[in-house]
Amino acid sequence: MNHPISTCLILLCALFGVSAKPALAAEAKRPNILFIIADDQSPFDFKFYNPQSKLNTPVIDQLAAEGMVFDAAYHMGSWSGAVCTPSRHMVMSGRSVWHIPSKAKRKTNPNEADKSLVPPDLANFTMAAVFNRAGYDTMRTCKTGNSYAAANKQFTVVHEAMKRGGTAETGSAWHGERVLEYLNEREKTNDTDPFLIYFGFSHPHDTRDGTHELLAKYGATNHADKNTIPAGDPKQPELPNNWLPKHPFENSHLNVRDEVNVSGVWKNRDEQTIRNELGRDFACSENIDIQIGRVLKKLEAMGELDNTYIFYTADHGMAIGRHGLQGKQNLYEHTWRVPLVVKGPGIQPGSRAPGNVYLMDVLATMCDLTDVEAPETNEGLSFKPVLEGKQATVRDVLYGVYCGGQKPGMRSVRQGDWKLVKYDVPSAGVHETQLFNLAENPLELLPEHHTQEVIAVTGYTPKANETNLADKPEYSAKRKELETLLQKEMQRLDDPHQLWDQN
């Protein structure tokens, strides 16, 4: 169906004998999408979330300055110790955590057998399949493993490899080269179709082997001796203020590989180990920034940059010493939240919004921005109205789950500044509740952070209200309100488990 303006233009051009093709072609040019996703990256690594950070990412910082930064973007959660698996399945399908398939041959989502909850043909309605049918050229480069293989195959051009080394061939530059090769081929063949590029990295996921130059910049070494502690260096990032020597209780999965068997960390949480590991993390993240810069420079040279929506995010956050944890199997903000920056046509430079979005909302948003119909299987919400400055959030309540270890595990709910986290670990006899006011306690500090031993290491003295408020009588009504809200969200989202105090 022609747009009324287009119809009038055709009639006027016919009347005066002028061709309307160039104008119509310009009007019909659809925007491209460059979706960039890192593997294991806390939002608080970046200066636009944490001004004290030492991480140098000028390209991503520029995207943030020229686009919109989301202050409340989340990955929803996981029923697997490999948190990236459900996260990436949600990204690809636009479906919530209990409505997606597990990794092939590893049925970790207990709802998977119910075809009404997890459609068996879901791969046909995932990101690349949707955009292929809409006339887009689709390309993907990313890590192998712990991903959505059936959805990945839908991309027309696919490159997959685990690249976590410290050289151009073994590290992030490999993924950058694949995108540059693709763009060069498009240029060579004069391909003018709109494109969707899924630009994924294997870093800063461990093993965080950075390049020699970037490791030196952050005073870090690719430490590989389990029996020694890495050398200290003043150039290493400082300990985060919510560091602890250990988590104060069994959180349902402290024996998972990411907590006890990461090369360079293992079970150590001492200051030197964590600062060195943060330095390695930053070296890998800056290398990602360099590769993104190369791709953006190429898009600019091709005249495509201004017509491209660019998303930057990660599949989930990471602890690396925060709260005495190392991995991604928790629901603290450093891990449940993800970085999210979007730049593109019509987005106000330097804008910022909470958003209250999940990664599963990305597919609906991409479709909305490009006038592509979202698949019927989609459950995500388009956050285009947030990108346009028409609203600040797309939902009021946020739900989080982790039960990759002991069941039921952890659950969280956030509404406004208030956040509740509950831990149900039957074998350890753990029934814990945490209540945080994130406006007053953004680091989710606990009573353990108030001890002189911890203050002596971090150098940070918490205020009295920077603590867990769950057992304080004056907050009992708020706790009850959020517990009721959490149970409603668990039921609404088909969570198959119940916590010890639910009925």
Automatic annotation (TrEMBL):
Residues 31-372 form the Sulfatase N-terminal domain. One of its GO terms (molecular function) is glucuronate-2-sulfatase activity. Keywords: Signal. Pfam families: Sulfatase. InterPro entries: Alkaline_phosphatase_core_sf (IPR017850), GAG-degrading_sulfatase (IPR051849), Sulfatase_N (IPR000917). This is Sulfatase. Residues 1-25 form the signal peptide.
